[in-house]
């Protein structure tokens, strides 16, 4: 059994970012991330602080644009247009989910594709769908893929089962796994006999957000598990979708939560800020 | 066993098209399809003649823009820009594959999204990926879905196996099946033990283009088979991916080739021309 720690993966990515930032500075370029946050949801602020700290460590400038939760779609588009036009800004991150009165489709597509480091824009998402992996990718599925690659988990011809069908996680992850020549199954709440489906997989990737949902009956000795879920368990402790303590000894590899996919996501985001600056 | 004939499905779609065309004419609107063909590949001309005949039958105007195979990307873009700007044209179809010297990505995205009745443009493809099925869809996967719906094949919670991972067929088909709450597996040339994977499916959809590739060992009594393949067999006769004669009596439902998905595709295309005119 191998613990697929995110930390080592993130470290490697960060070392590359440092070099790239250095190189850019020598050319007089300074990568800068604009963070757009509405209201002050504690989860958003927690993530924001982590991003700001990471930016500082890596020599990337960050600036937070905090707006009231009641902002209109129109005013938010105006802000994004300003940020798109502001030359000093390389990348733009908008925290989601957005309040219900805001038209998310309009906002997503108001971020200029060249500054869309979180891959919200339909054009960038469309590229992923078309198998073009050269542009910006959604950070969470990309982090999952980086972990598989870092630990040299074979994907070609393997059965990969994804438990999530969202546009932000499950679907782009499916496209990325297809690019690696995996056979890909996309599961969701209506899937019958998920236990059997997961048990037949070589790699299981879950992003359900239900703490400790999957016990040992879903896996086998050779299973590789990428746990993208993160939600509080019955004791209020943050936990993945996998009942880790009951599972980890009887599988071939598993990402911990915390310390797994989530710890790589920010590095992917900042890598993309640097790419945007180039 | 049920033969899932495309003819009946196409008939229903065509009746609706006729009504819609009538309604549009009463408003002074006349749907028109522009067909862009490079060179004179016999398959293209065969398909073109079938489209022109169907257009006539349904009261849709069609016009063919034939260009030399040696046309440059730039000149083809100029033609598409003209067609985009020409108000009388509702929809544009460009025959593919394009010659190798032409940049297909540029051409695809040069068709205005509102006239893109074959769903080439990244914006329209992106909508499919995002689960928005309100716009134009790629005609072949959409035809497969219309057959499943017409014959009231249950999809919710069913295991659907797609043997094709192209952006034109397999991937959009996966997205459409997910919208119907099927569990979706995408297979391809690197898939191991395809026989087992197909045999565990409730619905198998193949688009491999290898005549009679799949015999009875891939299916069971309850299998529903949608055969999107079309290629000449060893006697030169057009055939699907399924070894039909050996399979059809031992499954629950199967589309014939010819007379299956292919016979619905043109109706989908023309339905989208009418939608574009609206």
The CATH superfamily of the largest domain in chain A is: NAD(P)-binding Rossmann-like Domain
Poorly predicted sequence stretches spanning 5 or more consecutive residues of chain A: none
**Major interchain interface with per-chain residue totals:** A-B, 30 and 30 residues
Question: Which geometry of chain A do the CA atoms define?
Answer: globular
Rounded to the nearest angstrom, the distance between the terminal CA atoms of chain A is 40 Å
Strand order of the largest sheet of chain A: 1-11-8-7-5-6
The CATH class label of the largest domain in chain A is Alpha Beta
Largest sheet features of chain A = 6 strands, parallel
Helix-strand topology string of chain A: EHEHEHEHHHEHEHEEEEHEH
Describe, in plain words, how this protein is organized in 3D.
Two copies of one chain form a homodimer. Chain A has 278 residues and is an alpha/beta fold. Chain A has two domains: 27-115, Leucine Dehydrogenase, chain A, domain 1 (Rossmann fold, 3-Layer(aba) Sandwich), CATH 3.40.50; 139-263, Rossmann fold (3-Layer(aba) Sandwich), CATH 3.40.50. Helices cover 40% and strands 16% of the residues of chain A. Chain A is built from ten helices and eleven strands. Chain A has helices spanning 6-26, 42-58, 73-85, 104-108, 122-129, 139-150, 170-179, 194-199, 244-247, 262-277, and strands spanning 2-3, 32-38, 61-67, 91-94, 159-163, 183-187, 203-206, 224-227, 231-232, 238-239, 253-254. Chain A has a six-stranded parallel beta sheet with strand order 1-11-8-7-5-6. In chain A, strands 3-2-4 form a three-stranded parallel beta sheet, sandwiched between helices. In chain A, strand 5 (159-163), helix 7 (170-179) and strand 6 (183-187) form a beta-alpha-beta unit. In chain A, helix 1 (6-26) packs parallel to helix 10 (262-277), helix 6 (139-150) packs parallel to helix 7 and helix 6 packs across helix 10. The longest helix of chain A has 21 residues, at 6-26. The radius of gyration of chain A is 19 Å and the shape is globular. The termini of chain A are far apart. Chains A and B meet through helix 5, helix 7 and strand 6 of A and helix 5, helix 7 and strand 6 of B. Strand 6 of chain A pairs antiparallel with strand 6 of chain B, so a sheet runs across the interface.
